[in-house]
Amino acid sequence: MKKRDPIFVTQPALPALDDFIPYLREIWDSRILTNGGSMHQRLERALCEYLGVAHVSLFCNGTQALITAIQAAGLEGEVITTPYSFVATAHSLLWNNLRPVFVDIDPDTLNLDPARIEAAITARTTAIMPVHCYGHPCDVRAIQQIAERHRLKVIYDAAHAFGVRDEAGSLLQHGDMAVLSFHATKVFSTFEGGAIVCRDEATKRHIDQLKNFGLSRDGSTVEFTGNNGKLSEVHAAFGLLQLQGLDQALAKRRLIDQRYRRGLAGVRGIRCIDGVGEALGNHAYFPILVGADYPLQRDQLFEHLAAHGINGRRYFQPLISSLPMYRQDPSSSADNLPVAHRMVEQVICLPIYPDLDHDSVDFIIELVAGAAA
User: Fold this and answer.
1) Beta-carbon neighbour count of residue 79 at 10 Å?
2) Are 190 and 232 contacting, i.e. CB atoms less than 8 angstroms apart?
3) Which run of H or E residues covers position 65?
């Protein structure tokens, strides 16, 4: 089997430079480079329309958006969350002087397991922060019922879930707030960027004030301990351009997802995460689980792929709860998180992005299936 040029899990989608130039010229002529200029305002409106949500506040990155959402919610004490995510999820809690309390995940969805949440609730618990892992929806109804019983707020880390819908419409409508990432590797990108989706105008005004140092609306005084989370006009312009081709990009991702599933369906020991129905998901990632029936261990398959130029990702390894700043917490005990510890030793994310050609997908399938023959 011949070796090809390296293929990575994702690659940023770049529009034609000629299409971007008019946006840059408009920014240059306006002399407004940041701080809520016309591109920023246009992108917020466009995202509300595309996503089917009421209010969007743009940010310079998803992590700053998470930090600000938590601050805007006025949380204290403890927040229940998942150990199976990127570290920004838990870091945003620490930055707000909150204790992350880790709860195990569901073995089928890899999302926070609602059946385990209530046992972790204490008198100090003020919120739940689930993650729509790989863009697959959490059990939003079960989580909301728990939150209402215990008077807790819910903030979704929806970094992977841009454009995902359920039977009620946008997945981002669930919870008190949902936070997006627009990093270059995401389905929708502004190079770097992020956003908070919230339910009402008053919350949006407060969020917008917090991301601008806590300044009053007229700029005459500082009313809150805010930060600088603003998205520049150049980043917003790139987002407007990206949005134009997003439906086509998602359609290409869907076809790649289907091709992988067909090709891997009969491979012993390989399980594709079911996720969501075809018409609802964004196919942001393609994770597979390498089980005991597969001839190679997960790391051996990872190296086998890498030897042929396929750079998969063991995403998310290590677990957040295993990192030095978290591992001493009682909730980080491996006995408390058996499913997360098992899944993190099995997962590989295979490449998926709009420009990945079918020959390359078939090559990857052949590598995985061939090792099981």
Assistant:
1) 25
2) no
3) helix 62-73
Q: What is the pLDDT of residue 214?
A: 96
Whether the bond into 318 is cis, omega within 30 of 0: yes
Edge to edge, what strands does the sheet with 55-59 contain? Answer: 55-59, 194-198, 177-181, 153-157, 125-129, 78-81, 99-102
Q: Are 178 and 172 in contact (CB under 8 A)?
A: yes
227-277 confidence digits (pLDDT tens): 999 999 999 999 999 999 999 999 999 999 999 999 999 999 999 998 665
Tell me if 361 sits within 8 A of 7, measured CB to CB: no
DSSP symbol at 80: E
What is the token pair recorded at 11? 């690659």
> Do 235 and 43 meet the contact criterion of CB atoms below 8 Å apart?
no
Q: How far apart are CA 310 and CA 306, in angstroms?
A: 5
Superfamily of domain 246-371: Aspartate Aminotransferase, domain 1 (3.90.1150.10)
Distance CA 210, CA 191 (A): 22
pTM of the model: 0.96
Q: Report residue 353 as tokens.
A: 């992005």
Q: Which two tokens stand for residue 66?
A: 């998470």
304, with CB counted inside 10 A (0-12, 13-18, 19+), is: middle
Measured distance CA(100)–CA(337) in Å, rounded: 14
Domain ranges of the chain: 17-244, 246-371
Q: Note whether 182 and 188 are within 8 A (CB).
A: yes
Q: What's the Cα-to-Cα distance from 244 to each of 19, 137, 235, 248, rounded to whole Å?
A: 11, 25, 15, 9
Alpha carbons 361 and 182: distance in angstroms, whole number:
25
Instruction: Look over the chain and give the mean of its residue pLDDT values, rounded to a whole number.
Output: 95
Residues 246 and 226: beta-carbon distance below 8 Å:
no
Q: Say yes or no: domain 17-244 is CATH 3.40.640.10.
A: yes
282: left (phi over 0), alpha (psi -120 to 50) or beta: alpha
